[in-house]
Q: What sequence folds into this?
């Protein structure tokens, strides 16, 4: 479904991603792991068209995404839940859903909203509340709900567990598991290795802008090299 | 000072303040959504006043027709302004857009004022004054006289602010504009096109400036060189009320209008600009952090 080949991204002279290749099949859940500064966020931003690619190819459903602006990628069914959520602090929950809705994706606003509220009942309770007054976990759910309103086929999440209590993280990952069972393709960037490896089929481990390890999620959980990558930074 | 005089001064301040709130809100919405600081905003008001004067006083068109013509003309002008001068700045970092837009629109402002003053003096009258005289009678409300034109200007400001409010809260593009103003990255990520929002907001703001200038000239005469003063007012009100904040712009606009009228009464009209500076200075002090965050995000 998504194929990234020899992706290189630079910020000025700094090379953030050195020729990464990865592939994601339809319906798969893939984790991108690695320490801070490994280039995980940059890979997602490049897939979403938020940073320009320096070189490499990027295709989605056999169609090149190179040069397409972000809004066109959203219309093709790619959604990103960005790091730090990037909500509209002064706007109500329901307004986020209205803004996230993208006409022409084959789903009506009402049916998507009903689905999102069914998945996150707490958002239905708080639909008149301003986003800035929600708890951290609720804000993360809202960020996911807003992304789901574009009826995506590929959902990318950038550190959804950031700043949340372990209990909230577990609840969040249960929701992601539901989405996965419904057939949504997922790419999840995380430092919280255990939760995400229970969800994912496969994982790539990044370090210094390169893929240093890849494989099935279960194998990686027991792989001593994964431990080393993390121990090296902590 | 009698109560009656005080009431009349307050009413005069409210009329000015309503127009100030309208122009400041359009100005600050542009700043918040696009990082464009439109120095020519006041100049567009002066151009609106000039065009209405031409249509009503020289061409003897009915006022309603001239308002419609000004609106249409300024929608087109706003679109061309965005397309030709602002669009090339798109996609650059916010600080570059801010600084670049100040330079470009300052150029627009001084060029347009110089051309307008020169050609108006040659072709229409040697001492250009833009005033739309409608011959409206004064209203008497509880023993206080309110001039008809000023009442009309106040009604216009209230209606225009209400229309802007509805556009921002009830239309999809308005909602997207608010989203871009609040969080540009968040808006981009979910597929909002900032360039489309920028074009709409700029076009509407220029049209609003043209109409505000028309009704300003109904209430108070303008000359060709007042554009930068009006931009200064817009900037002051926006800074005091909060960038992109409609209720804030209303309070700050009316407050500044009343302060200006009272200063003019007690100290003389030449001191009015000092009022702007004091209010701006106070607002910047009170909102130090916020002003900086609002401008450069």
A:
């Amino acid at each position: 479904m998504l194929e990234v080949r020899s992706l290189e991204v630079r910020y000025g002279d700094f090379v953030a991603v050195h020729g990464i290749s990865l592939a994601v099949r339809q319906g798969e859940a893939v984790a991108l792991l690695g320490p801070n500064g490994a280039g995980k966020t940059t890979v997602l931003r490049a897939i979403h068209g938020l940073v320009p690619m320096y070189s490499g190819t990027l295709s989605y459903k056999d169609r090149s995404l190179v040069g397409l602006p972000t809004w066109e990628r959203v219309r093709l069914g790619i959604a990103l839940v960005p790091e730090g959520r990037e909500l509209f602090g002064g706007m109500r929950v329901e307004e986020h859903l209205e803004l996230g809705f993208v006409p022409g994706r084959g789903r009506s606003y009402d049916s998507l909203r009903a689905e999102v509220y069914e998945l996150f009942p707490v958002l239905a309770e708080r639909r008149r509340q301003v986003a800035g007054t929600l708890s951290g976990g609720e804000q993360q759910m809202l960020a996911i709900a807003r992304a789901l309103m574009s009826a995506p086929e590929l959902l990318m999440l950038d550190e959804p567990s950031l700043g949340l209590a372990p209990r909230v993280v577990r609840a969040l990952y249960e929701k992601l598991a539901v989405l996965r069972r419904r057939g949504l393709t997922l790419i999840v960037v995380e430092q919280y290795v255990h939760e995400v490896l229970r969800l994912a089929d496969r994982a790539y481990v990044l370090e210094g802008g390169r893929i240093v390890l890849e494989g099935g999620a279960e194998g990686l959980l027991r792989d001593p090299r994964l431990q080393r990558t993390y121990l090296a930074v902590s | 000072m009698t109560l009656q005089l005080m009431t009349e001064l307050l009413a005069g301040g409210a009329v000015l303040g309503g127009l100030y709130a309208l122009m400041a809100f359009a100005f600050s919405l542009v700043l918040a959504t696009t990082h464009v600081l439109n120095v020519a905003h006041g100049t567009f008001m002066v151009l609106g006043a000039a065009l209405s004067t031409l249509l009503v006083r020289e061409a003897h068109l009915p006022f309603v027709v001239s308002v419609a013509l000004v609106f249409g003309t300024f929608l087109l002008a706003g679109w061309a302004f965005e397309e030709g001068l602002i669009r090339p700045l798109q996609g650059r970092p916010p600080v570059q857009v801010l600084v670049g837009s100040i330079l470009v629109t300052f150029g627009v402002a001084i060029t347009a004022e110089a051309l307008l003053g020169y050609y108006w003096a040659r072709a229409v009258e040697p001492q250009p004054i833009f005033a739309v005289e409608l011959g409206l009678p004064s209203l008497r409300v509880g023993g206080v006289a309110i001039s008809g034109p000023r009442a009309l200007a106040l009604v216009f400001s209230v209606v225009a602010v209400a229309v802007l409010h509805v556009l921002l809260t009830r239309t999809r593009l308005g909602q997207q504009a608010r989203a871009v103003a609040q969080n540009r990255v968040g808006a981009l990520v979910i597929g909002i096109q900032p360039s489309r929002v920028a074009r709409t907001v700029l076009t509407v703001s220029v049209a609003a400036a043209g109409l505000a200038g028309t009704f300003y000239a109904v209430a108070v005469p303008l000359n060709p060189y007042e554009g930068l003063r009006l931009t200064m007012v817009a900037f002051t009100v926006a800074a005091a009320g909060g960038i992109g904040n409609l209720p804030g712009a209303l309070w700050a606009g009316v407050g500044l209008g009343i302060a200006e009228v009272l200063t003019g009464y007690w100290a003389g009209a030449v001191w009015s600009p000092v009022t702007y500076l004091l209010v701006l200075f106070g607002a910047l002090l009170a909102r130090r952090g916020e002003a900086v965050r609002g401008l450069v995000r």
